[in-house]
Amino acid sequence: MSIIVKKADLTKFKCDAIVNPANSYGYMGGGVAGAIKRVGGYAIEKEAVSKAPIRVGNAISTTAGSLPCRFVIHAPTMKQPAMRIDVENVRLATKAALEYAVDVGIKTIAIPGMGTGVGGVSTDDAAKEIVCLVKEYENMFVTIYLIDRDNNMIKSFKKYLEKK
User: Fold this and answer.
1) CA dist 26 to 32, 48, 74, 78, 156, Å?
2) Average of pLDDT values for 74-98?
3) Helix, strand, coil: what percent of the chain each, to 5?
4) N or C end of the chain: smaller count of CB under 10 Å?
5) According to the model, what pLDDT value does residue 82 have?
6) Which domains does the chain have, with CATH numbers?
7) Has residue 164 got a pLDDT over 70?
């Protein structure tokens, strides 16, 4: 029942599930998705693609391969790889990931900045949406981690988490 902001590598983070800000086709080329595939293994992408298409606003889970978590929740922020998006897609993807996690009984989840890479959403706008949603779902988890390697994303997560 806590929200923790942590500067860390999502692919090395131990928890029940990590969230991949995916595309609807399940391909894991660059950014967070590419890092998850490089560290966790190709099987993650293969399983995600087999469950595609995944609409923006929906989520699926796959094996975590060799990652230290149990599952990867794929929540598309964009329909096609490398699309520019707006902050509404961040909201839809974050909500889908949280709802999916609750439905399957996940108790600890790590969420990175969503849509801030190739999607082009500012770290501040993304953090505002993500933090607003995790506050709504906080009591349904033991811990929600807001994880990123980017200092600006961490700063934005902390800024909105401290607001009442």
Assistant:
1) 13, 5, 8, 10, 28
2) 96
3) 40, 25, 35
4) C
5) 85
6) 2-162 (3.40.220.10)
7) no
